[in-house]
Every structure is written in C-alpha cells, then in structure tokens.
Amino acid sequence: MASVNVVLFSWIFFLALFVTLTTSNPVVRRGFCLSLCGDVNNVTCPSGYDCLSNGCGHQCYRTTFQQPPGCPMMKCAYNCPLGFVRDENGCEGCDCDYSRLTQGSSTGTQA
Questions:
Q1: Which residues, 6 or more positions from 29, have their beta carbon under 8 angstroms from its beta carbon?
Q2: What is the pLDDT of residues 37-52, one digit of tens each?
Q3: CB-based contacts of 104: which residues, under 8 Å, 6+ apart?
Q4: Which neighbouring-strand residues pair with 51?
Q5: Contact present, 92 and 74 (Cβ < 8 Å)
Q6: Residue 37: CA count within 13 A, CB half-sphere
Q7: What number of other Cβ atoms are within 10 A of residue 33's Cβ?
Q8: For the whole model, what pTM was predicted?
Q9: In 3-state terms, what secondary structure has residue 96?
Q10: What are the distances in angstroms from CA 59 to CA 8, 13, 20, 51, 86?
Q11: Could you name the domain of life of the organism this protein comes from (predicted)?
C-alpha cells in the first residue's frame, strides 16, 4: 500500500510541476525588426501614441489616445505600427495610417 501511495504522489508531483512550468513562462513575442518611428528616421507618432521598442525595432503604441466623444470604440483585428487613419471628426477606423512614411525619403516628412 505504501508503494502505491509513493507512485501516486510521484505522478501528482510531476503533473503539478509540468503544469507549473508550462503555464508560468509566457511566450515573449519579438516584434519585427524595423524602426518605423523615432530618431533613426525622424518619424513621429500621432498624438496619443508613443514610439516604443517592440522587442527588436520600434513602432507607435497607444499610450494616452482616446476616441473623441461620439466616436465608436473600434476593435480592429490587427495592430498598425504607425497608428490608425482618423476621419474628419478625429475618430480612428481600422485602416493603418502610413502617411508619415514617404517613398524615397528617410526623414518621414512630405517633400
């Protein structure tokens, strides 16, 4: 009877250890390795966003932005690295805003 208890206890211990190890270490996802904003390319983020590291490069993340009153709260299926397009009322939609980037320009400003 004692050997059955030892075997049962061992199985429970290893099962608990396995569950603890597999759930306590979240997967750290590294972002893409392009710096889409910041001092490297002089591209600034829109108001309400900050240029932060994504683990490899830099992109704009919402920090203080809130939809203006009367705008619907959007739940977009993806993240936009430079923010979302805003309509004439300042409301964000789910289209990415790449207007800060221009082809052939390293400054990120319109020529």
A1: 55
A2: 988 888 988 888 899 9
A3: none
A4: 60
A5: yes
A6: 21
A7: 10
A8: 0.53
A9: strand
A10: 51, 44, 33, 5, 18
A11: Eukaryota
DSSP H helices, the chain, are: 2-24
Q: How many residues does the chain have?
A: 111
Identity of residue 43: V
Tokens 């936009």 locate to 80
**Phi and psi dihedrals of 10, rounded to 5?**
-60, -45
Q: 3-state DSSP call for residue 83?
A: coil
Residue 105 pLDDT more than 50? no
> What percent helix, strand, coil does the chain show, rounded to 5?
20, 20, 60
3-state SS assignment for residue 59:
strand
Structure tokens at 37: 């904003």
